[in-house]
Amino acid sequence: MAEFIPVQPFELVIFGGTGDLSRRKLLPALYHRFLDDQIPKDCEIIATARSELTREEFVKMAKEACKAATAADTWSEKSWNGFAAMLDYEPLDISAKAKDWKQLATKVKTDKTTIYYLATSPALYVDICKALDKAGMVCDTCRIVLEKPIGRDLASATEINDGVCAVFAEDQIYRIDHYLGKETVQNLMVLRFSNALFEPLWSRSHIDHIQITVAEDLGLEGRVGYYDRSGALRDMVQNHILQLLCLIAMEPPGSMEADDIRTEKIKVLRALRPLDETTAKKNSVRGQYVRGLYKGEAVPGYLEELGGASETETFVAIKAEIDNWRWADIPFYLRTGKRMSRRNSEIVIQFKPVAHSIFGTSIGEPNKLVIKLQPDEAVRLYLHIKEPGPGGLRIKSLPLNLSYAENFVARYPDAYERLLMEVARGNLSLFMRRDEVESAWRWVDGIIDAWKHIDATPDEYTAGSDGPLGAAIMLDRDGRSWRKPTTDAKS
After folding, report:
1. Which residue from 384, 302, 381 is spatially nearest to 338, judged by alpha carbons?
2. Which residue, of 105, 117, 262, 405, has the fewest CB within 10 Å?
3. Spatial separation of the C-alpha atoms in residues 237 and 245, rounded to whole Å
4. Are strands 44-49 and 10-15 parallel, antiparallel or unpaired?
């Protein structure tokens, strides 16, 4: 078992400290880690934003956010007061003059690990880094956290990386993707590389295809401006889904060191077969939801929520292929969308059928491994068994079920809780390296360019459905179909 590495005292500066990400995720995550004694009491957390708040007003706002995200039976005023003692606030307009940054600099002592968390628009990343450097707030023990998206294409991602790397060394930069902090995503490497059962089967010799689905049942939910500039491909595929694909497809790393893991992930991204104008027509589908029903209630279409015309996709499905020895000719079907029939994120490893079935057609579909990421985190391996009773041999596919809710009664951390602590520990293995980000954009840019040339306008799909018909047809041409989980937790 790996040695537990305690967190050393740190100071954390949150840019965008009054924003949605800070209130919903960062402050509650820090508070929960404090409750579990993982944050030393001499840490400092400084929020900064344009809002002209006093420290007392910010602490009140933070308390409301943390209390809303904490179970009633675990909340206590004593614990909150201990956490609140760490909090401070400094108003700052990022575009302000250098003298205004010096006020923040007086609070950032850099005599311990200093973490700058940029919970702002990516367009501000380079400006913030330059201002930190000019104010004398950059040192060898500083770390900087960048939220996704890193740019909106390869050119802008390269520009951001160039600007940030001009101030901070690569091993000081933590490019965060919260999917990498999820329990079941963390478990992918353990599942693959510590179980002798799977690794001999984990290749084109035994696997028929792999599906990765990240489906959301919500619409825009207040992200109108951002989402219409991005779309499903940029918002979900370029980061979350490609990260999952890398963990599924990568070769065993030499160790658990950050660069060993990240180098194997980059090899996968570089081996992804590009989609050109010809293959994009056949192997990709764009969709946009229209008015429909969700849980018996009418919900508006994308254009109604947006309040104007747009060809931004809210759904995308892609048949991806990896040109290497392990995965040659094995399709990876990637799918994500908004206003789908249910919230469901999962990875399906569909194994090939047995070479010869002595049971004829009664054996049903081949074995599969289903890794559920949300909402019910679980790992289920579907095996064939004989159904009990007389009247002939009846075969049924049932799962060996590792449900997190059923097997682990203790609360486990939110993704941001884990990732924030890994930044404090200096563990880069859960964060993206520069060439990883840029390799992902290079592949995605090829798809965007192909769509422009073939005029791939989005197909309509009804809100509350499983996406446009074209996504089902894409798999049907290959003699396959998307897995359809039921609402049953054991699906």
Report:
1. 302
2. 405
3. 10
4. parallel
Those residues with Cβ within 8 angstroms of residue 485's Cβ, 6 or more apart along the chain or in another chain: 342, 344, 346, 491
Global pTM exceeds 0.70: yes
Predicted confidence (pLDDT) per residue in 220-268, tens digit: 876 777 889 899 999 999 999 999 999 999 999 999 899 999 999 999 9
The whole-number pLDDT of residue 477 equals 96
- The residues assigned a catalytic role are 240
Note the pLDDT tens digit of each residue in 166-180.
999 999 999 999 888
pLDDT, tens digit, 9 for 90 and up, residues 334-365? 999 999 999 999 999 999 988 877 776 666 78
Q: Are 357 and 363 in contact (CB under 8 A)?
A: yes
At position 339, the amino acid (one-letter code) is R
